[in-house]
Each structure stands twice: as structure tokens, then as C-alpha cells.
């Protein structure tokens, strides 16, 4: 599916990029943010971003987002049950 979004020409200068690069960064940022909020899984976020899972994990690092969706407390509880 293709969706068109109208943006003013001035937004491309925000990332100092051409429209194609801007759209790719926008997709990546959306995937990372939705993953960070727990709305989508890593694989779905990578699909949204249009990148491989490995590339998505690298993007999480770039955006300083943890690849783990559990809190330290949840992890400790899970480990205590084993």
C-alpha cells in the first residue's frame, strides 16, 4: 500500500536530506518509538521501518532505546521463579 503525505519543502532541511531519506528516517523513528512504547514487536517495528531485524536493533542503539521490553523488576521476578 502506498500513502501520500504532503509536507512543506522546508521539513527536508531539518534532517539535511532529500525526500527519500527523510521518509526512511521518519519510518525508522516511528518504528523505534512504537516499539519503545510497547505498541509493536521488534519484528513489526522493523517491518514498519523497512529494515532487517538486525538493522532495527542497530537503530535502537542509535536512538538509545533498549532492545528489551521488560523492566529490571520484571526480569528479577521472572528469574526468581526459576
Automatic annotation (TrEMBL):
Domain of life from the UniProt record: Bacteria
Checking Pfam families in the record gives: UPF0175
Q: Write down the PANTHER family for this protein, in alphabetical order.
A: UPF0175 PROTEIN SSL1255
Instruction: Give the family this protein belongs to, as stated in its UniProt record.
Output: Belongs to the UPF0175 family.
Q: What is this protein called?
A: Uncharacterized small protein
Amino acid at each position: 500500500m502506498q500513502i501520500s503525505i504532503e509536507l512543506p519543502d522546508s521539513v527536508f532541511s531539518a534532517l539535511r536530506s532529500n525526500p527519500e531519506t527523510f521518509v526512511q528516517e521518519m519510518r525508522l523513528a516511528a518504528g523505534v518509538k512504537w516499539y519503545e512504547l510497547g505498541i509493536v514487536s521488534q519484528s513489526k517495528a522493523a517491518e514498519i521501518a523497512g529494515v532487517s531485524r538486525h538493522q532495527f536493533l542497530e537503530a535502537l542503539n542509535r536512538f538509545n532505546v533498549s532492545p528489551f521490553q521488560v523492566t529490571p523488576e520484571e526480569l528479577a521476578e521472572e528469574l526468581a521463579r526459576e
